[in-house]
Amino acid sequence: MPHLLHIDTSIRSGESVTRQLTAEFVTQWRQNHPDAGYTYRDLGAEPIPHITHEVREWLFDPTGNLHGVTPEEQALTEALHAEVREATTIVLGVPMYNYTIPSSVKSWIDRLVTPAHMLPPGAESGALSGKNVIVVTARGGSYAPGTPREGWDYQEPYLKAVLGAIGLADNLKFVHAELTFAAIVPAMAQLKPLGEKSLADARETLRKLAL
Length: 211
Description:
Elements: E1 3-8, H1 17-32, E2 37-42, H2 53-59, H3 71-86, E3 89-95, H4 103-112, E4 132-138, H5 156-165, E5 171-177, H6 192-209
Parallel strand pairs: 1-2, 1-3, 3-4, 4-5
């Protein structure tokens, strides 16, 4: 049965562009899949603690021994693993913070990158392979080819690499809403039409991906 995992990560609330876009995608997706399962996790409101040495040792221990990990830590990590494994589609709302991802996303990823999930050398699939993954981003500026900050994007390249390492890049799509600051920063006012077009394009792309 289809199952959607919906993750928001913005530290902003109602004014967050990524939250608005993921919510619109989820509404359309659930209308198109009325009998599907749904799980929501808000890493912006309830961030996952960064892993400790003990947690990492436990995650990489093939015997599964606790190594001092508390039952609460174990339960949290196992819940995160279960959510990803159950999902057939994952939508991630990831704003760009300082040219990269929020630390809350890194904490979530660090719990998933384990030997049980990583693709062995030469392997084409693993435990998490075969899912549809949509990463929805919002960026104050633009990082497209030919722009002044081309090459400053440390968000998409990192996510492509790390999600690919654990088998979540088979059907990976990025949907960018760029120039979001043009609506609120006077010095960028001349770019407002481009920002509005980028947002409209993102909405249309997500509508198609929700089928």
